[in-house]
Write a structure and sequence with these properties.
InterPro entries: GHMP_kinase_C_dom (IPR013750), GHMP_kinase_C_sf (IPR036554), GHMP_kinase_N_dom (IPR006204), IspE (IPR004424), Ribosomal_Su5_D2-typ_SF (IPR020568), Ribsml_uS5_D2-typ_fold_subgr (IPR014721). The protein is an alpha+beta fold and about 280 residues long. Helix content is about 35%, strand content about 30%. Bound molecules: 4-diphosphocytidyl-2-C-methyl-D-erythritol (CDM) and adenosine-5'-triphosphate (ATP).
């Protein structure tokens, strides 16, 4: 039997950091939603008690460092599953991009193995397992649009944004999430984006208000190290995107666009100097 799961990328519509916690993580307030750019996972049972990962992407680890491997190992151990699994990852989401590619693969593995091995684990429990793998994994288990608090694992479902185009552009630079959080001085943050106002904008179903409330306090940190990301943002605005923000710890920048007729100009304008550009829809 084969099980297929789609693992979509997320974007952060807003990301605020309240303070650093004694455990080293940061207390956050984020609103996240999914976009229609996804990895695809194929899972099949193996008679031997082993986990094998393969991928067409040559640039991700295929051993225990892979988040899908870690998810499979965790669920196997916790539910005492004695059979093995072969997982093929068809990677489409850029890696280390701020789009939670690895986290979404981990979440898809938890969902898929729950089905493959008929474990009957409720979503809430899958999300708890996910939290052991990474802060973004619980959100990726259910997706949708949600407010995430705590270190990102406490979730409240929200109304999805009005449908629009999302242009994603990733420069060929590597950003480490722990380095960005490590450099952040939360007490020095000048402007905090508002989760309340973004929730209101979503409630109102107002695309203009959503664009007006976009904000990410990690942007300043990443832009200081990589000024080219600021240039990318400016270019996207100049080309006509309605709202522009860096996702997560970056370096991917996304632009929200309501009019389809504007998409080709923005897409082509960015492709001029950025190899990885995608024009996708929200997963509402
Ligand atoms: C930047 C975001 O992607 C936005 O959605 C998340 O906040 C980070 O999610 P993630 O990559 O799943 O994060 P984790 O794998 O749990 O943590 C990576 C590193 O980021 C830092 N980290 C992460 C989440 C958080 N609330 N505070 C932190 O300080 C920690 O140094 C941690 O070692
Ligand atoms: N299945 C996977 N897909 C992509 N990267 C993975 C995977 N498993 C482990 N990794 C490793 O995880 C690191 C982060 O990659 P990932 O694509 O998850 O970052 P990200 O999009 O910035 O995530 P986040 O937004 O959650 O911080 C990379 O160094 C990569 O080698």
């Amino acid at each position: 039997m084969k099980i297929y799961e789609k693992a979509p990328a997320k974007i952060n519509l807003m990301l605020d950091v309240l303070h650093k916690r004694p455990d080293g993580y940061h207390e956050v307030e984020m609103i996240m939603t999914m976009v229609d750019l996804a990895d695809r996972l194929e899972m099949s049972a193996l008679p031997r008690d082993t986990i094998i990962i393969s991928s067409q992407a040559g640039y991700i680890p295929l051993d225990e460092k892979n988040l899908a491997f870690q998810a499979a190992k965790l669920i196997k151990e916790r539910y005492d599953v004695r059979s093995g699994v072969y997982i093929h990852l068809d990677k489409k989401i850029p890696v280390a991009a701020g789009l939670a590619g690895g986290s979404s693969d981990a979440a898809a593995t938890l969902r898929g193995l729950n089905r493959l091995w008929r474990l009957g684990i409720p979503d809430a429990e899958l999300m708890e397992l996910g939290a052991e793998l990474g802060s973004d994994v619980p959100f990726c288990v259910t997706g949708g649009t949600a407010l995430a608090t705590g270190r990102g694992e406490k979730l409240t479902p929200l109304k999805s944004p009005p449908q629009c185009w999302v242009i994603l552009a990733k420069l060929p630079i590597n950003v480490s999430t722990s380095e960005i959080y490590g450099r952040l001085r939360s007490e020095e943050i000048q402007v905090h984006p508002s989760a309340v106002k973004m929730q209101q904008a979503l409630e109102n179903g107002s695309f203009t208000e959503v664009c007006g409330e976009l904000g990410n306090v990690l942007e300043d940190v990443t832009l200081q190290i990589h000024p080219e990301v600021a240039h990318l943002k400016e270019t996207m605005i100049r080309l006509g995107a309605d709202g522009v923000l860096m996702s997560g710890s970056g370096p991917t920048v996304f632009g929200l666009v309501s009019k389809e007729s504007k998409v080709p100009r923005i897409y082509n304008g960015l492709r001029g100097f950025c190899k990885e550009v995608y024009a996708v829809r929200l997963l509402t």
